[in-house]
Amino acid sequence: MVKQDRAIRTRRTILTAAAKVFEERGYRAATISEILATAGVTKGALHFHFPLKEDLAEGVLREQDQLPIPDRACKVQQLVDTVAVHAYRLQTDPLVRAGVRLSLDQQAQGVDRSAPFLRWSEAGIDLLEKAQAQGELMPHIVPAETAEVLVGSFAGVQAMSQAMSNYQDLPGRVTVLLRHVLPSVVVPSVLAAVDITEGRGASVHGTLQDLHAVRQPVALS
Description:
Layout: H1 2-25, H2 32-39, H3 43-49, H4 53-62, H5 75-92, H6 94-104, H7 114-133, H8 143-165, H9 170-181, H10 188-191, H11 200-215
């Protein structure tokens, strides 16, 4: 157990260092030697967890995957919460920011940059299909199309926010995006009860952290 915990901590240290270097340098300019120096680990430890630079990048990419939002009776609210929490994590988590940068880095040759977009689209399709089954969506909606529009739009909005304010205005931009897109997707009576305010992401993320803390085992002294 001790060895396993140490390995998990080492892996996290390496990913955090790689995220810092990838975010600052971009994929092509980032070097293994700089990541090693930032992480403060041996070359053997790094290669045990991540044999190639591409493996490091894909490890960072996976860190931006959506946090599981507890089931909501309203699936549209669950979808909104998923988007809002991701926006909050972009503001607060360097690993998530680096993952998003890698997703959009056209010079990241050999890295599967499509995977995060596919995972986000699949999550969106799943929630939209459930919302559709509950009568929450307009009759003309095709969940796969709407999911791709939301994922693509979010990618553009976050890139604009990064360039203009280093993500400081992202919650507001996401609220504006949802306010423009959702009325053409969601039944008005359902949408009226959905919370898309700027503080939603921080609020839901705080709740998730509280739930995680409660579920953590207490170490015996």
